Every structure is written in structure tokens, then in C-alpha cells.
Amino acid sequence: MTAPATLDSSPESPAADGGRRSGTRLGLVGVAVAVVVALLLGFAGGLLTPRLTRPGDDSVEAGFARDMTAHHAQAVEMGMMAFQRGTDPEVRQIGGDIASGQQGEIGIMQTWLRGWGLDPTGSQPRMAWMPDGASLVKNGLMPGMATPQEMERLRAAQGREFDLLFLNMMINHHLGGIHMIDGVLDAGDESEVLRTAQIMKNTQQTDLTNLQNAKKRLGG
Amino acid sequence: MSISTPGGEQRRPTVVSTGKKPAAGRPASGAKAGSGKPTAARAGGGKGPRKPIAPVKVSQGRAKGPIILFVVVGLVAAGIIGFGAWAAFQGSKPWEERADAISGIVNYREKDPELVKGSNHQPGPIKYTVSPPVAGPHNQAWQNCMGDVYDAPIANEHAVHSLEHGAIWITYRPDLPADQVSKLAEKVRGNEKMLMSPFEGLDKPISLQAWGYQLKLDNADDSRIDEFVKTLRVNASIEGPTALCNQGITATGTTPRDDGVQMPTQ
């Protein structure tokens, strides 16, 4: 079987070689083009992948960054008031700590949004990124947030009354905040977001202990 | 035999390997391997040459198959990546471009760059050329813009400072129907970098202000309100996303308070 095959092909080898050579050349060009196209596609894919895989406008991460910014902003407002107007030294100290710490975290979250090419304002309702989240929003306020009336009362309060009102409001605020942080820890994918959220949770849990102890100490 | 040769290089190893081991992996030789015993029986009948013919046809079909496959896959890949690129770049249009695309918006950054630049603190009442004002000098205290819904007019001198910090100031003519007012209030309440107040003498029922931008509207259901807020809230700020909206004036009244941060009497 081997012999006839060899014999058969040898008389026609010039023609066969010619066909083979042009075929080979075509094949090489084809392979080269394919390689170049593959490299270009790979390059384009590499450029685009971060853009396409980064959190989108309706993502859990973007929702968390926007909503936690608004939530934090109110804690900053209350913390600054406690820092300025608290009577008890620990209330003033905790107020300043929370205000500066959460303002810093607002900067981190806003930087994420900018890095993801997203607006600070979303198109979704508040808390829509959390399962059943939208139902937790009351009068536009996310869990733990103080109503305009409560803020008004805090602005008007003085002395020990102010201190206790602040402690109560900040305890509620942190409880709501931790609930939202748990939401992103459950549903989020971005490692940087999860890491920061975990740090936020740790901080707020420590704060909670101290706020509750201060409340007890002040007889509230 | 002449038919077998155009198969070229690709086919050759098949033939050779057929000779070496009849059970080679290729489908063509596999077919042969399957018919190995009958072939051996018919070998004398000169049917040997026919065997190479089968691989030739197969390999020709194969040669086209991968090309078509690669072209299709390539086109699909290029399409996906092209669409992704288009969508990604479309979505990340700069906010300035998106702002200019909102119909009816007035861009004072272009119309009056001097006005939009000036952000000096200046005590006492200030005269503004645009009503409601969108930029310019202002009191050192800003109006609280933590989603505050004011039920009475507020001082321009404080509100302009809030705009500088990235707030959207929604103003409405006092005769705007109550249901429309509450629709507007829903967009504001609980949202920091937002504030809202009635404004006497407005030439339209509703007017939206961001630093350097204004949009006047007839109706609270207008979809351009959300567009304006999404595009310009914080983005239009010249002091960035961490400028404060709290610690501001929470009182109403159009007379500016020069004395800075509002401190309830202790």
C-alpha cells in the first residue's frame, strides 16, 4: 500500500509541488492575517474588558456608593453638630470622629463612581440595589436616617438633652447604615468595595458600643 | 491517483500514516481502519487507490469549514467588541455634552464665563443679573442643602453658595399647584446636594438651577427635571463632591444672614 502511493505521487510531483507551494503561501498569509486579527481583537478586548466589567449605572456597587454617600452625609451633619455643641467630652469626640471619618469615606465612594465613569446621581430609586430595599425608604429617607423634624429638634436642643438626643439619633443611624452595608456585603462583587464596606461595618459597630455606653453613662 | 495529489501537504501524512498504522486518529483513516478487513480481502481488486480519494474530499471540505468558522467567529467577536465599545463610549459622554443636549437649558458657563468664575464671599445683599441666580459672588454661609424642602423663599446670597458646592436648587412660583409642589419635593427630600424653595416673580412655574446652568419648565412631570439633576448634581460643582451641604443656614427669609453658620442660641 505504501509503495503504490509513493509511485503514484512521484510522476505528478512538479504540479503537486506548485499547487502545494501556492497553497502553502496562501495558508501562511491566512495564518498571518488570522494572528494579526486575533492580536487586535485581543488588544481591543483587553482595553474594553475593564470598561465592560466595571460596575454599571444600575449595579449594586454604584447604588451602594450613591446611597451610602447620602446616608453618610447626614451622619456628618449630626457629628459636626455634636463636635461643636456637645457638652460631654466623649460626645464631642465621637461626633468629630464620625464626621471626619464618614466624610473621608464619602470621598472614597465618590472616587469609585468617577473611576467607573458614573454620575454621582443614579437613575434608580434609593435602595433599589438591595432586595426589598425600596420598601425601606420612608419619605425619601433610608434606614436610620433622621427626619427633618428630628434634625430640627436636634438643632434646637441644648446641654445634656442635646447629648442624649445625638446619641440616640446616631445609634439609629448606625443601625440603619450597618443594614445597608450588609446589603452590599451580600450582593456586591467588587473586592475593593467589599473591603471598604467591611471596614465601614467594623467602625460603625465599634462606634455603636461606645455610643451605647455613653448613653448609659449619661443616664439616657 | 491524479485526483489524490491536489490534496497537497495536508493529505500526505494521512496517506503515509495510513501505511504505517491503519488505525490513525483522523476520520479519513478511521473510515479506512473500520473497513480494514474487508479492504484486505478486496485488496487485489485494485481498490487500494480509492481509499485516498475519500480523505481528499474530506480534507477539501475541512479546508473550507475552518475558514467559514473563523470568519463567522471573527465577525461575531468583532461585532460584540464593536458594540461594547460603542455602548461604553456612548455611556461615558462627558456631563458637559449631556447637559448641552437637554433642550431648553441655558448654559451660563458659555454665555457669561466671568459670572460663573467669580465665587468670592461677599457680605450683605448682592444684586444678581440672572433670576433666580445661577452663579456669582455670595455670602460666606450657604443654605443647608441636605435635601431641605423650604416652604418659604430663601436668600439668593446663601443659595448661590449651595450651587457652588454642587447642589441643585429647585425653585417654583408660589402659585404652583400643591400636587406639583409635592412631586418636586419628592425629588428633593432625603437627597443631599438638593434644596427647594418657592421663588417670587418667576417668569415660569418651575426653574432649576445648578452652578452656571438654568432650565425653566412648566410642569413637574417634565422628564427633563430628572435629566437635569442626574447630569448636573455634584458634576456642576466647582468644589467637588466633598463640599459640604450641611452646617448651612436652615432658616427661610430672603434677607441674607451675614453672620455665618447658624448657631441656635445656647
UniProtKB/TrEMBL annotation, chain A:
It comes from the Bacteria. The chain crosses the membrane at residues 26-48. The keyword Transmembrane helix applies. InterPro entries: DUF305_CopM-like (IPR005183), Ferritin-like (IPR012347). Residues 61-213 form the DUF305 domain. Gene3D superfamilies: 1.20.1260.10. The keyword Signal does not apply. Keywords: Membrane, Transmembrane, Transmembrane helix. Residues 1-21 are annotated as: Disordered. This is DUF305 domain-containing protein. It comes from Micromonospora musae.
Automatic annotation (TrEMBL), chain B:
It comes from the Bacteria. Residues 1-57 are annotated as: Disordered. The chain crosses the membrane at residues 67-89. InterPro entries: DUF3105 (IPR021454). The keyword Transmembrane applies. It holds the Pfam family DUF3105. Keywords: Membrane, Transmembrane, Transmembrane helix. This is DUF3105 domain-containing protein.
